[in-house]
Amino acid sequence: MKDGWTFLQGNKMTKGRLWGGCIEVLEFIKSTDYWPDKNFWSDKVLFLETSEEKPLPSQVGYMLRNYGIQGILEKIKGVVFGRAKDYSVKEKEELNKIILSVIRDEFNVSDIPVIVDMDFGHTDPKLILPLGCMVSLNPTTKDIRLIENPFN
Hints:
Blueprint: E1 6-9, E2 14-22, H1 23-29, E3 44-49, H2 57-69, E4 78-82, H3 89-106, E5 114-118, E6 134-138, E7 143-146
Parallel strand pairs: 2-3, 3-4, 4-5
Antiparallel strand pairs: 1-5, 2-6, 6-7
């Protein structure tokens, strides 16, 4: 993407362990034995992306609200959304507005970085985000770094 990754909020560097995936698939495991318990979410950087089914921005908002209701948004260190494939410019703008509105306005989580349009998930080009690896998010320098080797 020519515009690169977009930092919607955040003013200080933070670190956390990567966890996440396709937001629609994660909906399938909520309230099952596979869903992490409440203590799991501390110090995580949540990464989410949409599938080729292209959920409406409002549907993504509903799914994201569930993370807020569970208390997850107040525990995590950051949120990173993959670049939404096949969304129009208008749909991406609406999606970004809803993401920020849910996190910052509805759940009063305004102190963590929120980044959108990152190259992972159902998009090209595509980065691999290794589950459980420590990452730093720096809104000041617009920098995202893996800070440990995922192959240890």
